[in-house]
Write a structure and sequence with these properties.
single chain; 185 residues; mainly alpha; 0% strand
């Protein structure tokens, strides 16, 4: 008991364990597997999960949401200039756009398999969930939803975002899956 207390109190050269905070990214591929050593079936599962993440809460989600909001606003303004109700036109277009985006396939190309990716699936999962916790899609959207009076919102400052230690490990051990916050300046 005394030795373990000293190791904990005195410090250690062992790296901090990676902790997945939980969040929107989930995969059936076991977390202890090294990405470069995945078999073809696991690569297929992990790629499908990564594609889904990009579509639902990573870069493609931000782009799609911003695009739907901007175009809905333009449709609403055009309708208003022609004597129709801005809110109805804007909201109808936005809802249709969101439905269309949800059914669309993604253009994000999965970079796996990757022989130079020595990170674990746990590091990938933890990083993506840390990113989602720090910069959810809603914090990156600059356009208001169907609001004639709102201006563009600034994105969060990168310096104000919490650290994402799992992403440092992932970026070091798997440069092909380079990850970063969704937005920030």
């Amino acid at each position: 008991m005394g030795v373990s207390v000293c190791v904990m109190a005195c410090g250690s050269n062992a790296p901090e364990p990676i902790v997945d905070p939980g969040g929107p990214f989930h995969t059936l591929v076991p977390g202890d597997r090294t990405i470069s050593a995945l078999n073809p079936a696991d690569v297929q599962v992990l790629c499908a999960d990564l594609v889904d993440a990009h579509r639902s809460f990573l870069s493609e989600a931000v782009i799609a949401e911003e695009s739907c909001r901007e175009t809905a606003d333009a449709v609403g303004r055009l309708a208003m200039s022609q004597g129709s109700d801005y809110q109805t036109a804007c909201r109808t277009y936005y809802d249709d756009c969101e439905a269309m985006v949800a059914g669309r396939s993604t253009d994000w190309p999965c970079p796996l398999p990757a022989s130079d990716c020595h990170a674990t699936v746990l590091a990938l999962s933890a990083c993506l969930n840390q990113i989602a916790a720090a910069t959810p899609v809603s914090s990156c959207i600059r356009s208001a939803l169907c609001d004639l009076t709102a201006g563009l919102q600034p994105p969060p400052k990168t310096a104000d975002l919490p650290p994402a230690p799992a992403c440092g490990v992932l970026d070091r051990d798997c440069p092909v899956l380079l990850t970063t916050y969704l937005c920030g300046n």
